[in-house]
Amino acid sequence: MSAATTRLPAAAGRGTSAAANWAGDGWTVTKRNLIKIKRSPDMIIFAVLQPVMFVLLFSQVYGGSISVAGTDYTQYLMAGIFAQTVVFGSTFSGAAMAQDLKEGIIDRFRTLPMSPSAVLIGRTNSDLALNGISVLIMMGTGLLVGWRVNTSFPSFLSAVGLLLLFSYSFSWVMALLGMAVRTPETINNASFMILFPITFISNAFVQSSTLPTPLRIFADWNPVSALVQAVRELFGNLGTTPVPDTWPMQHAVATVLIGSAVMLLIFVPLAVRKFESVSSR
């Protein structure tokens, strides 16, 4: 039997429904990636150590020197840390795709009778699970340094859902970038060129009103700022902090939902098309 007619073990024996086969293929690749993460505990450890370090650094070292009008700095800070964690966590999709290309794993997947999008969905799903673990650990760390949720349980769930939705959408951007660079080593530098401006030129750690005018305008229209603002509102950490008079800041939840949908509409087809044409290095 040729490789082109060989099916993944989980796909064999399923029904003939295309949707069922697609979902099964996606789950098989997701499970493969989760097992890979389970066998690399150092990946999980370092994925959560960095945001823990940021929590302690900003809340315990810089917190006394940074004041925020209308609320305590620790309450203000945690939404920014959550947003930074999920955005940085989405880079695993790009790094893993670049590594799979280098090792020829992608070529092996393409010899199988499965949807190209299933491989990418499996990749982004496993990173969503890793981001979920990171957020839970961040919340535990935040509670230890005095952060509290001051709203209802549905609002809490909505905030977590927004964080994971944004991270999942951004994972597709990083997956496309991972297939565009020539080596896995390049993905870190390439992703930082995107991640540092959108996370640090935002309202994640300081109020945008304290920034120079060009940076303030960028921060007030930055989608990461909208995510941070939405999460602060839903966790009840905003207090009486003034909200910038721009549409994304005044309608932060809607901005995150629209922005996530736009990223999925643009980058899912682009990533699938890239997956079909890219070759191993």
From TrEMBL:
Keywords, in A-Z order: Antibiotic resistance, Cell membrane, Membrane, Transmembrane, Transmembrane helix, Transport
Record InterPro entries: ABC2_TM, ABC2_TM_bact-type, ABC_2_transport, Nod_factor_ABC_transporter
> Origin, by domain of life?
Bacteria
Any Pfam family from its record, for instance, is: ABC2_membrane
Q: Where are the transmembrane segments?
A: 43-63, 75-98, 128-149, 155-177, 189-206, 252-272
Example GO CC term: the record gives: ATP-binding cassette (ABC) transporter complex
Membrane-topology descriptor:
Multi-pass membrane protein
Which residues are in the ABC transmembrane type-2 domain?
A: 42-278
The keyword Endoplasmic reticulum is annotated on this UniProt entry:
no
- Coiled-coil annotated residue ranges, if any: none
List, in alphabetical order, the GO biological process terms annotated in this UniProt record: response to antibiotic
Task: Tell me which positions the record assigns to the signal sequence.
Answer: none
Q: Report a single Gene Ontology molecular function.
A: ABC-type transporter activity
**Where in the cell is the protein located?**
Cell membrane; Membrane
The family annotation for this protein states:
Belongs to the ABC-2 integral membrane protein family.
Record protein name field:
Transport permease protein
What species does this protein belong to?
Answer: Arthrobacter gengyunqii
Q: What is the lineage of its organism?
A: Bacteria, Bacillati, Actinomycetota, Actinomycetes, Micrococcales
